[in-house]
Amino acid sequence: MSGAGQDTAIRARGLTKRFGQLVAVDHVDLAVPARHVYGFLGPNGSGKSTTIRMLCGLLTPSEGEIDVLGLSVPREAEALRRRIGYMTQKFSLFDDLEVRENLEFMAAVQGVPKARTARRIDELVEQYHFGDCQKQLAGTMSGGQKQRLALACAVIHEPELLFLDEPTSAVDPESRRDFWEKLFELADGGTTLLVSTHLMDEAERCHRLAVLDRGVLVADGTPAELTARLEGRAFVVASAQPRRAQRRLAELPEVLGVAQVGNELRVLMRAGGPEGGAALARLERVLADGGPAARIRPVRPNLEDVFVAVTRQQRPREERAA
Q: Which among 18, 49, 183, 234 is placed 20 to 30 Å from 162, CA to CA?
């Protein structure tokens, strides 16, 4: 495979990983643009973490080719290591070390020149707001503070590419929002970020997004591109008896998913079935014919609709209903 272009940080073709009879990642093709926040969306067990480990050289693929920052992986994984950062939800800080001591340790591990270390740590202390707590033990910090410190440790050597594997699973919404602001600052500074998540609101923040399901790449595009493909297929149903209406609609073969959101139902129609006005009329007829009284209106698709569409469309009906 030829080297990744200047505007492509990661390129993979036919990426596959088998563990015995289990195919964890199944012939995935990826092209991650440089200086973007690229999201991996998928449920637990979808192959996100396995894919990330192969891309950064921690796991050898069963098949396929990987080019990261112009280097062939895993053959040139050692040369790649100094140019990337890697942070997981279980990123280990040393609880009995102070904030600055954690940063000093990671600087040594990552080979930051000693002449540069103190200045680099000062930059991170200011950027990540640790000025008043440099002497605080990491183990006494809040979840959000630990997360910011873990990110500072992951970028101490100024990597060109940062892998983040579900890094915000264990923190509160405000800390997650602040964390994402830091990610965009990194992207603005020229860093490419690949972030795996199973949270829809995080996926919506990404410049571009891939959806993995059972090891297969089932969608790839910007959030706007992905939702635009479902125009005319999403509806909201308001009913005094939402559970009864849900059961009625779920019986329709052209309905891909029905989910209750508060007192309303969100309905997604299958591809190839009626769309737009025809779909609306079909839903109205079904509920009017022996169903509970309801008001139905079309709505703009969101990423949850995308996720339902690409992960359920090809599955057997019995499995989708499970």
A: 18
Whole-number Å distance between alpha carbons of 90 and 167:
8
**CATH code of the domain made up of 227-321:** 3.30.70.100
Q: What is the pTM assigned to this prediction?
A: 0.88
Start-end of CATH 3.40.50.300 domains in the chain: 8-222
Q: In terms of DSSP H, where are the helices of the chain?
A: 48-55, 77-81, 99-109, 114-127, 143-154, 173-188, 200-203, 223-228, 242-250, 276-288, 303-312, 317-321
Residue 252 CA: distances (Å) to CA of 52, 258, 283, 318: 39, 10, 9, 13
Q: How far is it, in rounded angstroms, from Cα 319 to Cα 322?
A: 5
Residue type, 251: E
**Which residue type sits at 159?**
P
Cα 235 vs. chain centroid, distance in angstroms? 25
pLDDT in tens, the chain (322 residues): 444 446 999 999 999 999 999 999 999 999 999 999 999 998 888 999 999 999 999 999 999 999 999 999 999 999 999 999 999 877 778 999 999 999 999 999 999 999 999 999 999 999 999 989 999 999 999 888 999 999 999 999 999 999 998 888 767 888 888 999 999 999 999 999 999 988 888 899 999 999 999 999 999 999 999 999 999 999 999 998 999 999 999 999 999 999 999 889 999 999 888 888 999 999 999 998 877 789 999 999 999 999 999 987 655 444 444 3
CB 37 within 8 A of CB 184: yes
Q: Is 285 left (phi over 0), alpha (psi -120 to 50) or beta?
A: alpha
CATH code that applies to domain 8-222:
3.40.50.300
